Amino acid sequence: MAAQGKTPGRSTFAAGAARAGGERAKRRSTPLVAASVEAEPQAPAVAPKTRKPADTPPTSQAVGDPQPVRAAEQATPVKVKAAAKHRPRPVVSSTPAERVQRLSGERRVPRPSPRAKRAADQEAAGRLRVAPAPVPAARRRREEAEAAGVTDPSATPRTTRAAGQGSPGRAGARAPLDPTQVSGDSSLPVPGVEDLISGAITAIRIAASGAGLSPEDIERKLAQLIAYVRRRIEGDYTVDEFGFDPDFTETIVFPLLRPIYEKWFRIEVRGMENIPAEGGALLVANHSGTIAIDSIMLQLAVHDEHPEHRVMRALGADLVFQSPFLGTFARRTGSTLAANADAERLFAKGELVGVFPEGFKGVGKPFRERYKLQRFGRGGFVSAALKAKVPIIPVAIVGAEEIAPIIGNMSTVARIFGLPYAPITPTFPWLGPLGLIPLPSKWIIEVGAPIPTDSFGERAEEDPMLVFDLTDQVRETIQQTLYSLLMQRRSVFF
């Protein structure tokens, strides 16, 4: 039993030893590739799938080749793949332009070096010639006088020499001057001045004939304008104590307003003989038109239609002279503040004074109340006329009511801007600034018979009843004249 128990132990030990020896022999006979695969079974899954480089030479070794491979060589493909992944991009040996030149067959021009460029610049600068500075006129005349033997240079005549003649005793004499050279100390020639002037005159004549105007009238107006500019430069004009500039008014303002007077409104004037040829007088007219241009139209009518071409001095409201531009323009054209003191001073100088007693009430009344005179006030103009003993001449104006009919009034806007009224017309404010252009209505201005005031006694202006009666008489005269002219008028615009 005991022998039998020992026999199985020995056999078991021998079998284990034989099995271990077989394992060792098997390991010695197995290639290292298989060993690496058994040792690292997950290596193929972890390794990244990279694209095989095109320049890698193909291998002829089969998959089942039993040739052994070392462990160092087994890790080489992984390292090669990592280096190929992060290798730099190939450097382009030529630019796109150079490749295009190479393909097209053009020859590449080499870029010059900085040293060659500086040398070329110095050579070009050396070829430049510096023009001599012009000799001053005074020095030139002094040199010519010295060469001619004249001690006083101022006595040298400023006449040009004939062609081919130079200054005696001077080498390289200056060329003869051009006859069109500007006189004086200026050395700059002005060629063709006479030709330019004659060409401008010819062009003006052609334009005048094309516009249906007389060339003589155009030349006369041009000469007047040139003379006006000369007077302004020389200061040869006068301005009175009220700011009136007759030269500016008659030369600039009236010519600009005359086409509107003659072509747009076609104003017809009647009774101009009622205005005296000299001495003071008071012209009282109705006020209308939304745009208060009847005042300056009446002023132009008196100047053009009166035999003596008298100038009417209009009396304006305070708002007119408080405006920045309008106030200056009004004073320069002969208007002044509506005050008895100013009116009396004008009467004392023998001036024609025009007044519009309705004021802004007449200009801003609605179209349904057209040609209905508003209240004339307290009759201050009558008091001034009575004190100065000048006649009162009523004037009626028909046609100004239709140049901008008022169909509404924006009173809120007027209060915000401090205006007496903010009109709404068929064209304003719908057309913007174009709505301020007046309509071309037909105007008629009739000057009534004068009302004398010299028959009243002294200090008649202090009688309130007399002042009221004369004011009412003037108002009724103008109103009746307006009705008469409306009956005679055929149409608003004709």
Furnish the topology, listing elements before pairings.
Elements: H1 2-29, H2 32-39, H3 43-46, H4 71-74, H5 76-85, H6 96-104, H7 114-127, H8 137-148, H9 193-210, H10 215-234, H11 246-264, E1 268-270, E2 281-285, H12 294-305, E3 312-316, H13 318-322, H14 324-332, E4 336-337, H15 340-348, E5 352-355, H16 360-363, H17 380-388, E6 392-398, E7 408-409, H18 411-417, E8 423-424, E9 444-447, H19 464-488
Parallel strand pairs: 1-9, 2-5, 2-6, 3-4, 3-5
Antiparallel strand pairs: 6-9, 7-8
**How many helices?**
19
Largest sheet: 7 strands, mixed
- How much helix is in the residues? 40-55%
> What is the residue-mean pLDDT, rounded to a whole number?
75
Provide a descriptive summary of the structure in words.
The chain has 494 residues and is α/β, with parallel strands linked by helices. Among the domains are: 194-224; 242-403 and 438-488, Glycerol-3-phosphate (1)-acyltransferase (3-Layer(aba) Sandwich), CATH 3.40.1130. It is 46% helix and 7% strand. The protein is built from 19 helices and 9 strands. It has a 7-stranded mixed β-sheet, sandwiched between helices. Strands 7-8 form a two-stranded antiparallel ribbon. The protein is extended and about 165 Å long. 20% of the residues are buried.
For the structure shown, list the relevant keywords.
494 residues; alpha/beta; Glycerol-3-phosphate (1)-acyltransferase; 7-stranded mixed sheet; two-stranded antiparallel sheet; 19 helices; 46% helix; 7% strand; disordered N terminus
